[in-house]
Amino acid sequence: MRALSASELLDAWERGLGEPPARRSLALLSTACSPAVDDDPAQDPSMLSIGQRDALLLSLREAAFGPQVVAVAACSECGERLE
User: Fold this and answer.
1) Is the pLDDT reported for residue 1 higher than 80?
2) Is the overall model pTM greater than 0.70, yes or no?
3) N or C: which end of the chain has fewer CB within 10 A?
4) How far from chain centre, in Å, is Cα 44?
5) Closest by CA position to 53, among listed 65, 63, 44, 62
6) In angstroms, what is the C-alpha Rg of the chain?
7) Which residues of 59-71 are buried (b: 16+ CB within 10 A; e: fewer)?
């Protein structure tokens, strides 16, 4: 798998517009994993398990945006911020 260029990321984004989340993720992986996943020419991202796909998506995210994920949410009951 390789990191996507800005234009490849935009193209994958546009191909995934209006698609369910699983199909959008496959559009990203198909681009990042072409011509093959893990150097296996017979491997197709749509044939991977959910865990394998999620691991590849996290690797792709890390390559594009770095290793840190900032995630903050507010509790719907008390409004407390949670990381």
Assistant:
1) no
2) no
3) C
4) 15
5) 44
6) 15
7) ebeeeeeeeeeee
